[in-house]
Each structure stands twice: as structure tokens, then as C-alpha cells.
């Protein structure tokens, strides 16, 4: 796998005309942030050697290079999920490639179900920690030379980046909340009992991505910032049914403010 990562990174380096140190993973319904990127050039996943291909509605499938907030960046428009049948090594393959390309900071976004009774649909939740409920771990197997065998996880989400996001949100009068993201396998949405259990265990929002990517980024020494759009609510007295289409609609509605925070964070960081 390490040889494939280096092969993919080499293929991209030969074709890149910029030197980004910042990367963004654009999650469900958040792919429109790509329209904010200027001076772009891009590669479809299916033309990049060894790259998996996204299969989920709402997820495009390409790497975009260009400028955002005046900085060179790269963005994944369309991520890979464990529930699609990929191994954890495949799910996190792009993050490994990012490291080889010189990425120092990773911004990850997702749509998530809110379990905190104070949350509302459309809230932006800055992730300050996570709980990993995936049945496989992305660091299982032979250790990659990019980090220690047993990485410390005390500051998985960079405190300075969180403080910067809070400062920008306050300046722009944008409401943000903080919380713990619970990463689960999916693809089913949670039952009311599962929502309640995850909240009792310390979770504020739950989703089917992000955690594997963040673990691998942290293992590589890449600073990480994560943000969730609360697209549905669960675990309360009145159960609410949810569909993937409704999640996308809620994510798209919250997109402008999330984009504003991300753009300004990249400009200042």
C-alpha cells in the first residue's frame, strides 16, 4: 500500500503547478464550496492511479487544486466511506497521498445527526473531539513510517484552529456550537435508542465519515480542523424520520456560512 501511495503522489506531482499546504475534504452536500476555489485545475478520481472512486449520491469524484482565501489549496470533492465496501486503508488513502504532497493542515467537513438537545438543524458544530465506533481501525496492520505505532490522541483536533474558527464566527456574527463527533459505520441512520446511547456516552453528533481520515492525518502530523453541519436530529421524545435527500437539503442551506468560515480560516492560517 505504501508503494501505491508514493506512486499516486508521484503521478500528481508531475502534473501539479501549485504547492498547496492546505487540503479540504468536502462532505455530503458541501461540495459546492468547490465553486469558491479560483485558478483551478483538477483530476477525476478515475484517472488517478490507485485512487478509489466515490459511489454516493451527492459526492462528486475529483481532486481540485487552486486558490481559496488567497492560499494554494487542494480539495477532495467526494470522499470514500467504509460502508461502500472499501477497506480502511482505501478510505484513508487520499490523506496518505496528501501527506506525500506536502499538506500540513487538513479541513474536514461532514453532515451529521445532532443528539444534543440544544442543537438545531442547520447549526455548525466545530468538532473538538471524537468517539470512534468504526468496526475497523485505519492504523491496523504494519505501521506506516509517517508516525508512531501508538499515536497520542489528546489534541486530535487542533486547538489553535478551533480558537481561530471561534474568533472568525464571532466577528461575522455566525452561530457555532462545539461538540464531540461519533463516527459509525452506517449506512443506516441511527435508531432512536442508538441516538440516545451515543449521547449518553458523550457524543453530540453522529456520522459515517471523518474519524478515519482524521486519525490518519493525526498519525502523519497533519493539523486537523473538523466541522459538522447538523442536518437532522435524533434521540429526543418525538422521533424524526430522515432521508439522504433531506440531509443534502439541510447541508446546502447551511453551506454559505460554513464556506465563509472555512475561507477566512484558510486566509488567516
TrEMBL record:
<dbReference type="Pfam" id="PF01048">
    <property type="entry name" value="PNP_UDP_1"/>
</dbReference>
<feature type="domain" description="Nucleoside phosphorylase">
    <location>
        <begin position="23"/>
        <end position="267"/>
    </location>
</feature>
<keyword id="KW-0597">Phosphoprotein</keyword>
<comment type="similarity">
    <text>Belongs to the PNP/MTAP phosphorylase family.</text>
</comment>
<dbReference type="GO" id="GO:0004731">
    <property type="term" value="F:purine-nucleoside phosphorylase activity"/>
</dbReference>
<dbReference type="InterPro" id="IPR035994">
    <property type="entry name" value="Nucleoside_phosphorylase_sf"/>
</dbReference>
<dbReference type="GO" id="GO:0009116">
    <property type="term" value="P:nucleoside metabolic process"/>
</dbReference>
<dbReference type="GO" id="GO:0005737">
    <property type="term" value="C:cytoplasm"/>
</dbReference>
<protein>
    <recommendedName>
        <fullName>Purine nucleoside phosphorylase</fullName>
        <ecNumber>2.4.2.1</ecNumber>
    </recommendedName>
</protein>
<dbReference type="InterPro" id="IPR011270">
    <property type="entry name" value="Pur_Nuc_Pase_Ino/Guo-sp"/>
</dbReference>
<keyword id="KW-0328">Glycosyltransferase</keyword>
<dbReference type="InterPro" id="IPR000845">
    <property type="entry name" value="Nucleoside_phosphorylase_d"/>
</dbReference>
<dbReference type="InterPro" id="IPR011268">
    <property type="entry name" value="Purine_phosphorylase"/>
</dbReference>
<comment type="pathway">
    <text>Purine metabolism; purine nucleoside salvage.</text>
</comment>
<comment type="function">
    <text>The purine nucleoside phosphorylases catalyze the phosphorolytic breakdown of the N-glycosidic bond in the beta-(deoxy)ribonucleoside molecules, with the formation of the corresponding free purine bases and pentose-1-phosphate.</text>
</comment>
<keyword id="KW-0808">Transferase</keyword>
Amino acid at each position: 500500500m505504501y508503494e501505491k501511495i508514493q506512486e499516486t503522489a508521484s503521478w500528481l506531482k508531475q502534473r501539479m503547478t501549485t504547492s498547496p499546504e492546505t487540503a479540504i475534504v468536502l462532505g455530503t452536500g458541501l461540495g459546492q464550496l468547490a465553486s469558491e476555489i479560483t485558478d483551478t485545475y483538477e483530476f477525476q478520481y478515475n484517472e488517478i492511479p490507485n485512487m478509489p472512486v466515490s459511489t454516493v449520491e451527492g459526492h462528486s469524484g475529483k481532486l481540485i487544486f487552486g486558490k481559496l482565501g488567497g492560499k494554494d489549496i487542494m480539495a477532495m470533492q467526494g470522499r470514500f466511506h467504509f460502508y461502500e465496501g472499501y477497506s480502511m486503508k482505501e478510505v484513508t488513502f487520499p490523506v496518505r497521498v496528501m501527506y506525500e504532497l506536502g499538506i500540513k493542515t487538513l479541513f474536514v467537513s461532514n453532515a451529521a445527526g445532532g443528539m444534543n438537545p440544544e442543537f438545531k438543524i442547520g447549526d455548525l458544530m466545530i468538532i473538538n473531539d471524537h468517539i470512534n465506533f468504526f468496526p475497523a481501525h485505519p492504523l491496523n496492520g504494519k505501521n506506516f513510517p509517517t508516525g508512531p505505532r501508538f499515536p497520542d490522541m489528546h489534541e486530535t483536533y487542533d486547538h489553535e484552529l478551533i480558537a481561530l474558527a471561534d474568533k472568525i464566527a464571532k466577528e461575522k456574527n455566525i452561530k457555532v456550537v462545539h461538540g464531540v463527533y461519533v463516527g459509525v459505520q452506517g449506512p443506516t441512520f441511527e435508531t432512536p435508542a442508538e441516538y440516545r446511547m451515543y449521547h449518553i456516552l458523550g457524543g453530540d453528533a453522529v456520522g459515517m465519515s471523518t474519524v478515519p481520515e482524521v486519525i490518519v492525518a493525526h498519525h502523519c502530523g497533519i493539523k486537523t480542523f473538523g466541522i459538522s453541519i447538523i442536518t437532522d436530529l435524533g434521540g429526543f421524545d418525538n422521533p424524526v424520520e430522515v432521508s439522504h435527500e433531506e440531509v443534502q437539503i439541510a447541508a446546502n442551506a447551511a453551506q454559505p456560512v460554513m464556506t465563509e468560515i472555512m475561507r477566512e480560516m484558510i486566509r488567516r492560517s
